[in-house]
Design a protein that fits this description.
Layout (H helix, E strand, L loop, with lengths): L11 H21 L10 H14 L6 H36 L15 H19 L2 H12 L3 H25 L4 H8 L4 H35 L7 H10 L3 H29 L1
């Protein structure tokens, strides 16, 4: 369609039609989601929000409260680190099993034996199950089983991140050069030795970089899981939010931002040293 003086854009009909279709689809979504932004203008809501924001602008800074915040911040880091360590205990063996490049049965023929293929698919399915359930959902389940506290957070991170790490580790190893790994396996090397001396030297930087990134994500996740009772800084922030203590929420939010920024800097430093 050629442009005209009245309609300089030749695709204006398609743009208008696309906008109309988008609005027509958006309206029922807003209705079914019960989206009601006007409740924010309710007098009671405005009064509560004003009181909360007035306290929020003056963060709590009493020595006793700051000591509690530092203790909970350290617990948040501990939850993330312990959960990631447990995830690695499951992800590393799973990586050995599902990485086809480390398969001994495919040497020579290039085909994997039926038993090995079934085992590999079973482990892959388990990893899919683990990572398909968000850590927040795992945390809710474990809070019901083991009660409130950091144990639920550690287990939730361990399960979800085991599935994530196992999948990504295998993909990283599969994308590396196969020459050294196949040479070691062909000369009678074990799968673990082929991993350590064949595939790992080439992929170590990428593996460590992704692991550090997941640790950073685990710190953020452990703080969020605290809102469902899984311990750490998030649980204290949830308690203060319920009491509408804006000054306490402000202090813990600042600490949370600093914690994530510190984790990001550590991650950048390690990536730079491994580059």
């Amino acid at each position: 369609m050629l442009a005209s003086p009245l309609h300089p854009d030749p695709a204006w009909r398609a743009r208008v039609a696309g906008t109309a279709i988008g609005l027509a689809l958006l309206w029922p979504m807003l209705v079914f989601s019960e989206f009601k932004p006007w409740v924010l203008l309710d007098a009671q809501s405005l009064a509560a929000a004003g009181h909360f924001l007035a306290e929020f602008l003056t963060p709590a800074h009493s020595p006793e409260f700051l000591r509690m915040v530092l203790r909970e911040t350290w617990q948040t880091v501990a939850i993330a680190s312990a959960g990631l360590f447990l995830a690695l205990l499951g992800a590393i063996p799973a990586t050995l099993l599902i990485t086809e490049r480390l398969s001994i049965s495919r040497l020579g023929t290039g085909r994997i034996r039926l038993g090995a293929a079934v085992l590999r698919q079973a482990v892959r399915s388990l990893l899919v199950l683990l990572r398909s359930v968000p850590e927040l959902v795992w945390a809710l389940l474990f809070v019901r089983i083991v009660g409130l506290g950091p144990t639920a957070g550690v287990l939730a991170i361990a399960l979800t991140y085991c599935g994530m790490l196992g999948k990504v580790y295998a993909e990283i190893l599969e994308s590396s050069s196969a020459h050294a790994t196949e040479a070691l396996l062909a000369n009678g090397s074990s799968r673990l030795a082929a991993l350590l001396y064949g595939a790992l030297p080439e992929s170590a930087s990428e593996l460590v970089s992704y692991t550090v990134y997941r640790w950073e994500c685990a710190i953020r996740g452990s703080a969020v899981m605290g809102f469902v009772g899984a311990g750490g800084l998030g649980q204290r922030m949830d308690e203060s939010s319920r009491m509408m203590a804006g000054d306490e929420v402000s202090t813990m939010l600042i600490m949370f931002v600093l914690l994530v920024a510190l984790a990001d800097q550590v991650s950048k430093l390690l990536r730079r040293r491994l580059a």
